[in-house]
Design brief:
The protein is mainly beta and 278 residues long. It is 2% helix and 49% strand.
Length: 278
């Protein structure tokens, strides 16, 4: 195990894993129960909708490793109003992924199910035809970026031909600013599977969490204003890498003084870390 300890009194920035700096990702398994996907990400049970009926199938959906996200869904039975999913989020920018599969035999024909999707009241996908784009029993993901200004992320599904539907919704915060990309590999160059845990502590507060590595990588935002996170006293950031078996492979501990923070000319960069396989 490699351990690095660094005490810094004049610090230009704070580097924290991306998810701690913004609204946590929202993942909803529409029409279904809580589900853990093939990446280890947890999707909450269906929530946030104004109305709608649930559909469910047992057939295999191609083009995905996550059958549980596509074998059920919610559709809009109301032809006079939209089916709306609403989520309370801080104002800011978000990336939205909508998951679809055409699993109903009667609408597995081009033009049999056509609907519109609005986000934040703006038309994003018009005349959406799942079968025309992907075929039957095949996963389809449609993505868009939105800006939330009223504390609510709203996604509306409006019927045109037959009923609008959705299988899963994913809302990811978009955090801008310079970042540090941590790239963890074994000596043979293969990416490390595992998790990067973080703990931030001071005399006034403490918070922690853990993010799975994506192909051996974790992205940390270089944050120039710790006071916006409620940090005003000297604090300590601990990063710890563990593999899938729970072995600690790497640790970093940094003590920081927010009174000396000055982002200045700090730019995005990358740190390549080679660790031994235990």
């Amino acid at each position: 195990m490699r351990k690095i300890f660094c005490v810094v009194t004049f610090m230009v920035a704070i580097c924290l894993p991306k998810d701690v700096l913004a609204q946590s990702p929202i993942r909803v398994n529409c029409g279904g129960a809580s589900y853990t996907d093939s990446k280890g990400q947890v999707w909450q049970a269906d929530a946030g909708y104004n109305w709608g009926n649930v559909s469910s199938i047992s057939a295999v959906v191609s083009g995905t490793s996550d059958q549980g996200l596509y074998q059920q869904g919610r559709y809009n039975p109301n032809f006079s109003a939209g089916m709306i999913y609403s989520f309370a989020v801080p104002n800011g920018q978000y990336h939205v992924n909508l998951y679809f599969a055409e699993t109903y035999a009667a609408t597995q024909v081009k033009g049999a199910r056509v609907f519109n999707v609005k986000m934040e009241g703006v038309a994003v996908f018009s005349n959406l035809d799942i079968f025309a784009l992907a075929g039957a029993h095949t996963a389809l993901v449609k993505s868009a970026d939105i800006t939330v200004s009223n504390g609510q992320a709203n996604i509306e599904f409006d019927n045109l031909v037959q009923t609008a539907k959705v299988n899963a919704i994913e809302i990811l915060p978009v955090v801008s600013g310079p970042y540090l990309l941590l790239n963890f590999t074994y000596p043979d160059g293969t990416p490390v599977p595992g998790n990067l845990a973080y703990t931030v502590s001071s005399s006034l507060l403490s918070f922690q969490g853990s993010n799975p590595l994506n192909n051996g990588q974790a992205q940390c935002i270089i944050y120039s204003n710790p006071s916006a996170l409620g940090i005003s006293a000297q604090f300590t950031v601990n990063l710890s890498l563990t593999d899938t078996a729970g072995h600690t492979l790497w640790q970093l501990t940094v003590a920081m003084d927010p009174s000396q923070v000055n982002l200045g000319a700090v730019q995005s960069s990358a740190l390549n870390v080679v660790v031994q396989k235990l």
